[in-house]
Amino acid sequence: MQDLLTRFLFPMCPHLSLSPPPPATLWLLLPVCLSVGPPPLSEMKEKNPWHSPVAIIITVIGVIVIVALVIVAVLQNRPLAQKYKYGIVLDAGSSHTALYIYEWPAEKDNNTGRVEQKHSCKVIGPGISSYASAPQKAGESLKACMKEAEQWVPVKRHPETPLYLGATAGMRLLNIENSAASDKVFEAVGEALQKSPFSYQGARILSGQEEGAFGWVTVNYLDDRLSQGLETTGALDLGGASTQISFVSDQYDGSESPSNAVNFRLYGNDYELYTHSFLCYGKDQAQRLKLAHQTQSGPNAVEDPCQHPGYNTTKKYSVLYDSPCVSNRKPQGAPATFLHTGTGNVKQCQDVVKNIFNFTDCKYSQCSFNGVYQPSLQGPFGAFSAYYFVTSFLNLTDTSVPLEDVRKKLERYCATSWSQIVQEHPGVKEKYLAEYCFSGTYILTLLTEGYNFTSESYSNINFIKKIKGSDAGWTLGYMLNLTNMIPAEAPDSPPLPHAGYVSIVSICAVVIFILLLFSLRPLWARHCKKQQIV
Ligand SMILES: Nc1nc2c(ncn2[C@@H]2O[C@H](COP(=O)(O)OP(=O)(O)O)[C@@H](O)[C@H]2O)c(=O)[nH]1
């Protein structure tokens, strides 16, 4: 700018000074120069017409306008200092409760900012369904994580932060078994959560269909597949008490088995989702189903091929059968306990595990198991929750490894003695250690024989825990839905990115200015000539 002034203003006002003034004083000289007027005619002589006062004034104003335009363009879309909004979801699962805090930029229009998991807290103790006989304790168990949440969410955001509690298969089972007890647990939990400074939106049991569908939304939202209209990823969720499979298949339009259909319109695209939740086929309840099968005759001892050789524990029949998944199968006249020992044989374990599925009855064109319709598998799949816990422990998350090799690895693991397993994993809870052989076998059987993954389609499965820092699970999808964070229609986006917008405005301003100067050229020429004639 100062350079321009030195070149244009100073030659116009030679009567003010003999040498160019310092750049800082050029601006001050401009009004003086203009008020004094043009230099004496004698000095004009054959001067360049560009040095006329009109040209210089236009130049200076033009430059100022251009600079102003560019500044406005740069500042207009500049990202503002980030402010965030928050949402909290409590996942009251069968084995435990977890709290998730989500955050997203507050200033984005139509809630279109990206939602991310900011923090998670694992509630100490069992799932809320285990507090049926002491409901108050269910509420108390949440206190520590709620206090943590108060520290993670800025105080001024507390009253506007929605807080949801969703319960899954553990509470579904308690509700089937004893609905009064289930209501009392919700009452106690509601009381505890109402005392929090957040905006408590209620606690409820999610249907299996909701659990499956929101897990699918979470995975595809985090992968940016919904906003970009890309092919979606199926979702495989393995909990303690239920398991869900959800995916979009070209073959499925909801006409066959409509109860498995969930329709979404997200970002301007329609999705006809196939989803099914198998109650009692989560890994803990499946273990009970298997043991119930092995103890049909009420024996004193069970030799279990799904336990490591050398494993032996005394178990109570009353505890094993204390679940609606198996309670009606309790053998008559069984002793109080049985001795549970291991033989560590994967092939026999597979056979025992297969007994908990019904692969034969199917009134539809095709089924997964237990007479449940399932269209042909399509696309990639994300497998999370216990799918991940188990496969990551067993080092089986790499699905490019052929299924046969996976089975051999599992065979070696199951055949390892219990004492060696305990010795090699001192930091792992014995409860979990005792389950991995069964869980690995169950997962492979469920995927291949239950859902019909083949040696090829198995490699389409991704065992995942988190996607871009957020846990895979139903909670994020649930919150996105309840807070209307995913628009049905694609939001209007500016036609140009910010940098492109600034460049175009700047170029246009310069071009207009140059054209203006050229259009005024004849005027300056005449002006200069007139002065010379006089
Ligand atoms: N191995 C292992 N299993 C886990 C862990 N956390 C939870 N589980 C088990 O994984 C299963 C699913 O847990 P979760 O996803 O919390 O499901 P939910 O409790 O049924 O909602 C249950 O059988 C849990 O006992 C873990 O850190 N390691």
From TrEMBL:
TM ranges are 54-75, 499-520
Q: What GO biological process terms does the UniProt entry carry, in alphabetical order?
A: nucleoside diphosphate catabolic process
PANTHER family given in the database record: ADENOSINE/GUANOSINE DIPHOSPHATASE, ECTONUCLEOSIDE TRIPHOSPHATE DIPHOSPHOHYDROLASE 1
Keyword annotations: ATP-binding, Calcium, Disulfide bond, Glycoprotein, Hydrolase, Magnesium, Membrane, Nucleotide-binding, Transmembrane, Transmembrane helix
Function, please? Catalyzes the hydrolysis of both di- and triphosphate nucleotides (NDPs and NTPs) and hydrolyze NTPs to nucleotide monophosphates (NMPs) in two distinct successive phosphate-releasing steps, with NDPs as intermediates and participates in the regulation of extracellular levels of nucleotides. By hydrolyzing proinflammatory ATP and platelet-activating ADP to AMP, it blocks platelet aggregation and supports blood flow.
Major location (coarse): membrane
Name the needed cofactors.
Ca(2+); Mg(2+)
Residues that coordinate or bind ATP: 240-244
Share what the entry says about its subunit structure, partners included: Homodimer; disulfide-linked.
This chain's source organism reads Gasterosteus aculeatus aculeatus
Q: What is this protein called?
A: Ectonucleoside triphosphate diphosphohydrolase 1
Reactions catalysed, semicolon-separated, are: ATP + 2 H2O = AMP + 2 phosphate + 2 H(+); a ribonucleoside 5'-triphosphate + H2O = a ribonucleoside 5'-diphosphate + phosphate + H(+); UTP + H2O = UDP + phosphate + H(+); a ribonucleoside 5'-triphosphate + 2 H2O = a ribonucleoside 5'-phosphate + 2 phosphate + 2 H(+)
MF annotations from Gene Ontology:
apyrase activity; ATP binding; GDP phosphatase activity; ribonucleoside triphosphate phosphatase activity; UDP phosphatase activity
